[in-house]
Amino acid sequence: MFSTFATLVLSLIATSAVSALVVPRTAAPQGWDTSALEPYDTYHCRYVAIQCQTQHNTQFFSDCCHPLAAGESASALPAQCQMPSGVTCSNGEPVSNGGSDDGCDDGPSSTPTASPPASSTFVQPAPLPTTSNTPIAAPAPTTTSEAVSTTAPSTGSSDSSLNYGGYATYFYQEGNAGACGTVHSDSDYICAMDQSRYGNSGNTSPLCGQQVQITNQINGNTVVVTIADDCPTCQNSNSIDLSVAAFQALDDLSVGDLPITWKFLN
């Protein structure tokens, strides 16, 4: 696995201009205990580098993909849990020791995605250029009472708020089960919720199976999806990772990411 993944990481780094890039969370998930757990950037880098997002419901995930206690060293983990050879961490992202660009720059890119990534790594393209007609999404999640409809917060209860300030991205399924324990194809209308909403990725969340209606703030296109996974690399708690088919219902894949509003339907 190491040689295959090392090749993948180096490939991702070398193609930082492409619109599908892993973007680290700007802050640790809500409730991250910094006194009891390792730094979030350290955990996030290792999680992405050893492809934990493709290993849900496996012994590998149980052995390698949970955060360490503060003061505990990753060197004590089994060999398969170690960082790939030639890869280190920078700002919470895996990078090659050769010093090539790791793709963490959030600057816009004009190069569309030429082909699908080699794995189901959660991806975040470069942000769209902002124009006078493009809604500017706030980096921190907020809510508004505009366009009132039946929605719910992360617990699934009902209120009249609409969630905004997030982005939609897309990821490939490749036959891997999501955190909810189900396997889907790229043509299924499913999504992965930000981990601060989903909860422990090793468990089935109360959000699993709930439906979410998502609207593209730029063109008004809307899609309804079912929650099937968690997203540890989404930009904030109001960002959602979509299956390929669900993203295409909002816009072309070459767009990369979209400012969205969304609400729970059940």
UniProtKB/TrEMBL annotation:
Compositional bias segments (type: Low complexity): 106-121, 129-155
Domain of life (superkingdom): Eukaryota
InterPro entries (UniProt xref): Expansin_CellWall, RlpA-like_sf
Record key words, sorted: Signal
SUPFAM superfamilies named in the record: Barwin-like endoglucanases
Start and end residues of each stretch annotated as Disordered: 92-159
Leader peptide range in chain numbering: 1-20
PANTHER family: PTHR31836, RLPA-LIKE PROTEIN DOUBLE-PSI BETA-BARREL DOMAIN-CONTAINING PROTEIN
Protein name (Swiss-Prot/TrEMBL): Plant expansin
